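Below is how a single chain appears once it has passed through the pipeline. First comes the sequence as given, then the structure the pipeline wrote out for it. We keep one example in the README because the format questions we get most often are answered faster by looking than by reading.
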Amino acid sequence: MSARTLLMVLHRVLWLAFVVQVAVSFAVELPYPYWVGWVPAVAAMLLGLVLSRTARSRVMATSRATVEVAPPVTGRWSALNSPADRTPSHGTHQLGQTYAIDITREDGAKPRPGFARLWPVVRRSEDFPAFGAPLLAVADATVVHAEDGQRDHLSRNSLLGVLYLLLIEAGVRSIGGPHRITGNHLVLDLGDGTYAMYAHLRRGSLAVRPGDRVAAGQELARCGNSGNSTEPHVHFQLMDGPDLSTASGVPFTWHGVGVPKNGETFEVPRERVDPA
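Resulting structure:
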């Protein structure tokens, strides 16, 4: 286990210790002063800053050329949290997310529900056209990690839902580790030290297993709403290693599409053309 992985585990343990003692304090009086209870939280925040800075430094020191791959979907989609608008695209370099992108489907049998200020607070995953959409291999590759046992939860695309996600759920998932944040996910080894990660897969949809060789355009799984997700969507990123705890992001471009900006709609033909 690397030093960085150990620090990430310690970070989660500190937050867990803080949450546990807060919960216990509602039932019994803790045998130490009030301020002592905040020590794990302060230490966790300081350690989080250290991890963020080291992740940024590693990205800068190991910067890679842009890798062109095929799009992971077909049909009409729009981009969210795109590296075309800012990096790191998700506000952090950790978990290899520097150049990650989120995309959501805009075609299908029903329109994509809009953001709700008050009602409905939540929606079913099936109400979104992205849910169940096929996810395809972006290149010839080897599957190095695949899991799809986590449930697809209700949407968080309302004001109350987003507040719940930011203030409660996201913190709990962070304590659980990277796989609780990404939800069901898979990692492909594309060769030349480049790995592709697909997150928030639909539970039970995996069509591949670790060790499988896959061809570009082959169906791997289905889009879902597991992990730290507001609605069914695809989270895609390239990395320089298979371990989310230690990997750095690698910039990508999709053949025939490029890197769509936030809110930009793009379309990939059903008969997808792969990179030459």
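The longest strand covers residues 141-147.

See the next section for the split statistics.
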